[in-house]
Structures are given as C-alpha cells and as structure tokens.
Amino acid sequence: MAAALPRGFSTAYKRARSQDGLTPLASPPVLKATKLEDEVAQDNSRLPGFLRQSQNEIRVKFNDLAWKEKLRIYQGRLDPNSEWAQDIGPQVTKRNRYANVQPWSKSRVHLKVVEGNSDYINASPISLQDPRTGVETNYIATQGPKINGLSHFWHMVCAETSYVAVIVMRSQTHDGSMEKCYQYFPLSAEAGAYYVEPIDKENSSPEGSVTFLETVSDPDSKTEIRRLSLQFGDDTKEIWHFLYAGWPDFALPEDEDRAALLELVKHSAEKNSSPSNPRIIHCSAGVGRSGTFIALEYLLAQIESGAMADAKEGEDPIYDVVNRLREQRMLMVQMDIQYEFLYDVVKEKFIEWQTHLALQTGSTQHSPKLRKLASGMKSAITGIGNNEGDGYFVNEETNGTHRGDENQSEDAKTTRSRGESQVEERKREGQDPRVK
C-alpha cells in the first residue's frame, strides 16, 4: 500500500501531479496548496457544525441509527402491513444471499412476471434529492447475484433501466473460497455470450443474452470498465459495467484507493443517461459498500451545489442521508467504520471546496501573501489541464474484440498522439486544454 500523503495535500494536486511525473514533491506549488488548505482546515469555525464533531459523537449517532433500524425490524415483525415488514416464504429464502439482509416489502423491486408467480428479487429502489438543486438521483441497491438469480438480475436490468444501463460492482466474486458474487457477466470475447433464461417459462417470457463488447482498465479509478450488450428478442440495451476491486469486505479504501473511489463516483455518473435512470449498485450483500457509495456520491454533490454550506447548527446531512437510505433498504452503510469514513471524506472535500472558493474570489480572509502563493495552484484545483470528457475507448467500433492501449490500431494511436500534441500546444500558449 502506498504511504499516506501529508495532511492537507489536495486531491486536485494529486491529479495534476499524476499528469506531470517531472514535478518534484517539494516544488513550490505543493507548498502553496498545502499552506492554504491548512489555513482553512485549522479554522474549524468555518466548517459546518456536523464536521466539527468528535469521533465519539459520530459513533453515538451511528448507534442511534442502529437502534432506529432495530425498532423498524421489530415493528415489521409485529405488523405484516407495516412499511417495515419483510417478505417471507421459501422462494424468498432461496433467493437471498444472506438470511439477515433483504428489502422492506413496500420498498423493493418487483420482477415482471404474471400474477401468482414469485416476483421477488433482493433489490431496493433508492431515490435521493439534492435540497438546493432539486435534482433527484435514482439507484437500485442489490445483492451480488447468485447462480440461481442470474436471470432475475438481468431481467431486472432490462425492465428497470433506460436504453443505457450502468452497473457498479463493488466486490470481487470470491473472498478466498467464499463466493461473494456469482460471475454474472462475460469477462472477455472468448467467454462467449451469457445465456439469460426466461423467468416465467410457462408464460413465454423472453430469453436473452449478455455479450461482451470491449474492456479497458482505467488507472484513475482503478476500475475495470466493460461495455456489454444485453439482448431480449429484438430489444438491445447497452451496458456500462464498472468493477472496482479496491474496497475489500469489512475494510475501507485508503490512500490511492480512496482517490480512485472518488473518480469512480464521477465516471459512473457521467456514463449514465440521466439522474432519473437508476444505476445498479451492488457489492455482496448490497448494503455496506453499496450504501456508502450512494451516500458518498450524494454528499459530494451537495458540496458542489453549495447545499452543504447551508447546513444550520444542529443539522447533520450525513446522519440524515444514512437514515433516509435505511428507510429505503435496511443496513445501508452497515458498519461504523463506513459511517466514520463518510465524515472523513466529506470534511476533506469540503475544505478543498472552501479553498477553491477562496482562490476564485480572492477572499480577504486570507493574507495577501498567502493568496499570492496560492494563485500558483489555482489551475490544478479548478481542473485546468485535465482531459475530462474523453471516452474510455478510442475506437467505438469494437466487433466484439478486447481493446487496451497495447491493442489499439495505428490510426487510433496517431489520433491520440495528435490530440496530446494539441493539448501541449495550448498549455504553452496559456490556454485551457479543454476548450476546443
């Protein structure tokens, strides 16, 4: 594992530094960014109250969330009509990966089957709305498919998403000898198409297939990104599949893995057709890492929109979003270390956001000398110099072949080389490389 970077080291600078391997660690821009961020970080009065809490106060809140969930489960067992009731029966037990993790009956995805057949799948629709922008973002949190649930999973993807579907996989298929998720998609063209059997054979429900198109390994997000094709009859759907393996079960992503996770959050949203189109998020149980991913994306969006800065004393957006998630699916953000992780990352990103604003506005709260020093890092913090928006695959005509840098055509390499030269030329002229 890489050594931890110094406190206050901006994520924006890490990204800029990764693009320029000749920049020494002790170069002036590093010191400038660190001084400004340290000034912001040390002035706790500028942080919302919930980000000034001690670790003990955060753990007390997590315990409060746990008690609320126990009361929900107890109420659901007493009253089968309660919103916290859970489905029972042999089909439910057979389809659950873990006996203690399943959706609330009134907050679950229903498979499209004829009345009388089991429509159960261990998956929950999740919806979160940003309080400032009003944008509502949808997800489906689900367990890692079992072998007897492979067809259920793909029928759900087909029925619940638009013409493009995004799947974020947060787990390896195995941990030692224990299966965490069945291998439900083809890894390469050589694997051939995966057959998807009908879920309602007696009533002629369609059969389908999942076909591999292409793949690339993205170093920024440490993610294997695959483009798949899901077909049922004449209907075909494009699938973007993100496999992030930098988050072991019962652990947290650290150092470079944490930065990669934040990149994954951004990339998976960019590939989605719209926030209303639910992304499929799963790990093994579909609650711990999946819930943390969803909560983190929502909270980061609140920072960017400015809603986080609106939090009044006594309000805690992190507590609130985890509670809302658990009202939609039990055990979301399952472990105390996952809950504490949210505070840690949100505090770091909020300080970066404040620093960014200080650089943009020339805030008088910072000394003129410090503002002058910080101006050298403005381009890195605002993202100038990044080639954002480029596709993962140079050539979209895949013909079912595996593509990586080593397999690109000469035309593709020439095109990329020409593009890089144009970027360098714009840099020398002092222009933003992203502006065409």
Walk me through this protein's architecture:
With 436 residues, the protein is α/β, with parallel strands linked by helices. It has a single domain, classed as Protein tyrosine phosphatase superfamily (Protein-Tyrosine Phosphatase, Chain A). The protein contains 12 helices and 10 strands. The strands form 2 sheets. Strands 1-2-10-3-9-8-7-6 form an 8-stranded mixed sheet. It has a two-stranded antiparallel sheet with strand order 4-5. Helix 2 crosses helix 9, helix 3 runs parallel beside helix 8 and helix 3 crosses helix 9. The longest helix is centred in the last third of the chain and has 26 residues. The radius of gyration is 23 Å and the shape is globular. 34% of the residues are buried.
Keywords:
436 residues, alpha/beta, two-stranded antiparallel sheet, 12 helices, disordered N terminus, Protein-Tyrosine Phosphatase, Chain A, 38% helix, globular, eight-stranded mixed beta sheet
Task: Walk me through the topology.
Layout lengths: L10 H8 L9 H15 L12 H24 L11 H6 L27 E7 L6 E7 L7 H11 L3 E6 L4 E2 L2 E2 L14 E3 L11 E11 L4 E10 L2 E10 L11 H16 L7 E4 L5 H18 L11 H12 L7 H26 L6 H7 L3 H4 L28 H19 L8
Parallel strand pairs: 2-10, 3-9, 3-10
Antiparallel strand pairs: 1-2, 4-5, 6-7, 7-8, 8-9
Family: Belongs to the protein-tyrosine phosphatase family. Non-receptor class subfamily.
Pfam families: Y_phosphatase
